[in-house]
Amino acid sequence: MELSCRLTFCEAQAYVDVQFWQRLRHLKLSEWKLSDQVVHIHGTLRTDISANACVDDCSMVCFSQDAFNDEEAYLSSTSQSSFVSVRFPGCLKNFNFLTELLDLDTKASLNDMLCSELLIPLLCTEYTSLQEEEEAWRAAKYTPFVMFTYVDAKSYLFYHREAFPSFALNSPIEISSSHTGGGNDFISEKAAEEIFEYGRCLLLEKPYSCNPFISILDDREHVLFHAFTPQNFSKLKDEGKIPVVCFFNFSPAPTTASWATRNIILCLRLALPSTTSFSFLALRPGGVASIWHVECTCKPLCALSVTAALSTIRNRRSDSGFHDEAPRQANHLALLRPTGWRRKGVAVVDLSTMMDPTLRADADSLLNLELMRWRVLPSLELSSLAECRVLLLGMGTLGCNVARNLLMWGVRHLTLVDRSVVSFSNLARQSLFSVSDASSRRSKVEAAADALRAIIPTVDAHHVLMTIHMPGHRTDPTKDAETKAEIERLVQLIQEHDVVFLLTDSSEARWLPTVIAAAYSVPVINVALGFHQYVVMRHGVGSPAPPSSIGCYFCSSVVGPLDSVSGRALDEQCTVTRPGVSAIASAIAVELLAQVYQHPRRFYCPAYRGDSNPEAMQEIRCLGAIPHQIRGDVYRYGVRLFSAERSPYCTACSEPILLTYRNLGVDFLLRCVNDPALIEEASGVMALREQCHTELVDMELITSSENESP
């Protein structure tokens, strides 16, 4: 078909998926932080390139969350399928300030992109071999993509501008003739099928954009193939042959030229400025029937202008895809006018109304933690802390406050243990309970678990209603089986978790969990309150050898745990403490957990003792020192750090106690609950006390006899 019209090009179309923006936000918060370096991304065009495919429009390039994956992770083998995901590589620059995006130099940015991604690799590089040149021209980014963004992470607003850049030459291209399909005066059906199959195999092998190549028709039947390079194109022309540039044409309609076609012709004309005619064969999903052959004419470019422009680009060559200063030499670059912006101005995507409130609550609650890693604490480790499985024993004032603080640090796996129900006297001090909980006398653990899920719906909060048996609080002998089952359940819970918080009201309620945790080397953080005072401490884990030799809550006691509740007045039965002490101690306990998780040895790390020697200073991590005990008061507002070694006579973690428990199991623990004297006997405290008493009596006798001597 003879024509006389100008060749026009259809702009590439892009679809940016919602998941792309979500991934961009995640990368900005978690990995890029304050960095505004250019990153490589890629879009995909999924299409059927078989000969019998029926495709009306194959021009939509999709950018999904996979756009940020590297090439090896993204590209999958398509040799067994006619479908292929064509890869359109590009670049993304995310600004730290919205004003940077609004003030973007649109002309300079496209100039930079085209020079660095297209012109410099193809036209401003000296190749050492023909093979190197052929590979460069085959893998060139003929459909480059650039995106500039700003992420308002708190509001889920994404500001963006994007373009498929190209240069508009002052010299237009005229179509002298065009044909569709095979079996015509230009090409036979057989030759057309051979060319299509060759192009299809190239695209399956390396699905990069359009994969151009050159075909030569010796006659209408026989086809020879060559790599697409200006050198091959010029050589074949000099030999009197008619080189035809072939490529896959991903455009909305069979007889329209894609945006990649524009850049292929652009590079060919810049490499060979004297070119006045050329032919191209646009392949398309659908086989031979969709082939579009076009013969074109154009005026030659000014060789001096092209040489000067390429020389200017070559002189400012850089490894980066974007530069602060764009080429300003208007005289040399006048023939290269950048174009390709998808829209005028900055667009904004608002995902705030599209987000699942449940997922948003979880993601936004971690925003402050992620921002801490930007500038203040780049080495802060959050992932392992988020996976920590925490067992809270006691859901009173301490338990509620600790649970809330754990949520702040991103901990999402909690198990709550208590036997009490919510009372009206709890409401002011215990932050997870409401009037409705007290009115219906709900169990504390159930109400607390629901309250935590109301705050962060994705939290994995389990509740266990059970009694933590205490020495001196004798059990009903007829219910020994039930009591053993509860103790065994506590053993199971402690073994299933990474750390145990002891938050019970009485000291004797801490004994049973301390023994079990010590026996199974499960870390414990203990919080206890006085009226003005508080103590927060971590128990030693594992063997009694350093650095695990720090003691537990009972190591400083010389008597076994006893019933401290029965026979007491109301003010002695309740934990009477100043209202703010619990919040202070709870916060310190959770901060201690976070600090421990910054150390590679976790709870096995040595205790900070306030030393200033280099060895001790090396143990300080990004969140600070990791002590054994923190003791404070709100009377003088003092805080002191203590460290105590594990006592060989400890009534909870000493080797005699643990060895007896390992030998006798739950039966030993039940006997200790009903007979606290057994604890002192098993630990050796009773024998030690008797020995001390004997030595003291002997000393008194000696002193008395010395005083009576003349």
List the helices and strands and how they pair.
Elements: E1 2-6, E2 13-16, H1 18-32, E3 39-48, E4 60-63, H2 71-74, E5 83-95, H3 98-102, H4 106-123, H5 130-138, E6 145-152, E7 157-168, E8 173-180, H6 189-205, E9 213-217, E10 223-227, H7 230-238, E11 244-248, H8 259-271, E12 277-283, E13 292-298, H9 303-315, H10 330-333, E14 337-341, E15 347-350, H11 357-365, H12 367-372, H13 383-386, E16 389-393, H14 397-408, E17 413-418, H15 435-439, H16 444-455, E18 460-465, H17 480-496, E19 499-502, H18 511-519, E20 524-529, E21 533-538, H19 570-573, H20 579-596, H21 614-618, E22 629-633, E23 638-642, H22 655-664, H23 666-674, H24 677-683, H25 685-708
Parallel strand pairs: 2-4, 5-6, 11-12, 16-17, 16-19, 17-18, 19-20
Antiparallel strand pairs: 1-8, 3-5, 6-7, 7-14, 7-15, 8-13, 9-10, 9-11, 12-13, 20-21, 21-22, 22-23
Question: How would you describe the overall organization of this protein?
Answer:
It is a single chain. This protein has 25 helices and 23 strands. By secondary structure, the protein is of the alpha/beta class. Helix 14 (397-408) crosses helix 20. The strands form four sheets. It has an eight-stranded mixed sheet with strand order 18-17-16-19-20-21-22-23, sandwiched between helices. A seven-stranded mixed sheet has the order 1-8-13-12-11-9-10. The chain is elongated and about 125 Å long. It folds into two domains: 1-355, Cytidine Deaminase, domain 2 (3-Layer(aba) Sandwich); 382-684, Rossmann fold, CATH 3.40.50.720.
